[in-house]
# Entry
Amino acid sequence: MIVCVAVVGHQNNPLYIQSFTEADDALKLHHIVHCSLDVVDERVNNPKKSGPTLNETFLGLLYPTENYKVYGYLTNTKVKFIMVTTDLDVRDADVRNFFRRFHAAYVDAVSNPFHVPGKKITSRTFAERVSTIVKSFGLNAAG
Amino acid sequence: MKQYTNVLDRPISKGKQEVSLSGFAFLFSELVQYNQTQVDNIAELERRLEDAGYAVGTRILELLCHREKGNRRETRLLGILSFVHSTVWKVLFGKVADSLEKGTEHEDEYMISEKELLVNRFISIPKDMGAFNCGAFVAGIVRGVLDNAGFPAVVSAHFVPVDGQQRPRTTILIKFAEEVLQREARLG
# Structure
């Protein structure tokens, strides 16, 4: 189950953070997202030449903490998507699919002429689409 | 081709991907006229058109990266230049740009030339405006794409007279920032 998704701009400024648990640990999730940004920067600046290709957008599992897994995705404009999940067995294809749909929703939100790049995303449509994608991720993984 | 017995099962077509040229020409001429009333000199007008193009550039980069490029990110100079030269031009103007050249005098200069920019098709510049080019809008688009992809540059549009042709050719001059060249040299 996905507990949190975040969109972080290219200067590491938060553009959109949303948590999907009823519990009140939003602060802990923010902290986890913040720490994972360092891992993203490390992966980008010191690429493993033998590993996946240099300019892949999907970064994969960033780091596993006690009971969370954090996945990252980097777009061409240095905007990062972070996804925190509690599932223990998550298929790679599912996560890639999730990020693809998330990227589509993000592109639509940014194409809004009233959106100022660098400011937080305040579109309600974007929030609704994200929660739909998050819900369907849980269903696909379980089924 | 599958034959659909029920007309409701047929997939919906993507629709025409074209926009009316005259509609765009009128809208662009209004943009230039509106900006002209707000400024005092030509440099300011050029800057405003460029800023308008910059916003278009950022959005088109996001859209194209998601739609066309799949999972790749551009990290090399030639990669991003050929991306601008073919993919961006194709989406915006329906064809690839006429040519992409490397500047001979300076290491950091590249030029994209076009026989006739689409935005300039119905515009003729009055003599007293000197070297002003409404292609500053397209220069702004290119700057928006390069800037947000991590290649900061100064982009400008110039007229280059060609023998044998009545209307001069337009060249978009791209001058990359120092850090881009250093990074490119480091990547080898």
